[in-house]
Amino acid sequence: MTGKISPLFTFVAILIICIINIEANPAIATGYDPLEVCIENCAQCKKMLGAWFEGHLCAESCLEMKGKRIPECENFASIAPFINRL
Q1: Are residues 41 and 71 in contact, defined by beta-carbon separation less than 8 angstroms?
Q2: Residues pairing with 83 in the sheet
Q3: What is the pTM of this model?
Q4: How confident is the model at residue 9, as a pLDDT?
């Protein structure tokens, strides 16, 4: 060898250093906030369901429950309280 470090060795060394320094907590990495997700889901359901969905009631529920019950637009049980019959 001529004393040069191979690019592959450098890549593997950097990769190992990165893996060692990463904590496996997605809440910290992504900034997950249940209240924010809850309100965003209310807005998404309002876009999908229009006048059938009471988005303001959904958002108020998010605030009261502090994001503990996150509505899912495709899960009728989770959005049933916010559906109106027009």
Answers
A1: yes
A2: 53
A3: 0.63
A4: 65
Would you state the pLDDT for residue 25? Answer: 45
**Cα angle at 80 between 32 and 49, to 5 degrees?**
80
Contact 36, 67 (CB under 8 A): yes
Spatial distance between the Cα atoms of 77 and 71, rounded to a whole number of angstroms: 9
User: CB-based contacts of 30: which residues, under 8 Å, 6+ apart?
Assistant: none
- Alpha carbon distances (Å) from 36 to 29, 70, 84: 15, 10, 24
Contact between 70 and 41 under an 8 Å Cβ cutoff? The reply is yes
Distance CA 52, CA 19 (A): 48
Q: How far is CA 14 from CA 26, 32, 61, in A?
A: 22, 28, 47
The conformation of residue 71, written as its DSSP 8-state character, comes to -
Ranges of the chain whose pLDDT falls below 70: 1-3, 5, 9-31, 86
> Looking at residue 48, what is its pLDDT?
94
